[in-house]
Model the fold of this input.
Amino acid sequence: QSALTQPPSASGSPGQSVTISCTGTSSDVGAYNYVSWYQQHPGKAPKVMIFEVSKRPSGVPDRFSGSKSGNTASLTVSGLQAEDEADYYCSSYAGSNNFVFGTGTKVTVL
Amino acid sequence: QLQLQESGPGLVKPSETLSLTCTVSGGSISSSSYQWGWIRQPPGQGLERIGTIYYSGNTYYNPSLKSRVTISVDTSKNQFSLKLSSVTAADTAVYYCASLWLAPYYFDYWGQGTLVTVSS
Done:
């Protein structure tokens, strides 16, 4: 059960957009629409930002959006704000009650 | 709104067993809509799923840790627990407990996390 692959880092200036990819396989990302994205600030627990590929929990700004194509899911943060600087992790259901997390991406707001 | 709180020793000796408990409040651990999970994060590294448990006691472990992990549930106390045996320094991590909302399958509530250091 290998971790999903994410770029180590991504960055953008305030107001710009940044997109993070999450590449899995046909057994996880490609097989199920149960991809979620978590935001983690230093010293804090992760917080879900996107679930079921593109849905936002109540309270998450609509600047956060998700999509999927084949074995790759993506998270886009539009209109970057200083508070968006954090680590982001994707996660996917992998069948038989198994889940796998991504390797994580550090987003820097320049 | 669920609240989860981890508790247990912050220091464990190599080769011994790490034991943590998660207390759930604001809802019942016997809910059919949830599994209850443990996730860990070594310092400066990413998240790793350890495993989850259903209120019935059914468990689902990460294959890479399965031989050393036991997760159990105590519905009378609204708690679930983690035991990780034969620990080494590589098991040093922040351990989180979290609630897994079934279908949509995401961890919606998390504990604050507890750092467990493996050292003699």
Remarks:
- The beta strands of chain A are 9-12, 18-23, 35-40, 47-50, 64-69, 72-77, 86-93, 99-101, 105-109.
- The interface with chain B takes residues 1, 3, 32, 34, 36, 38, 45-48, 51-52, 55, 57, 89, 91, 93, 96-104 of chain A (CB under 8 Å).
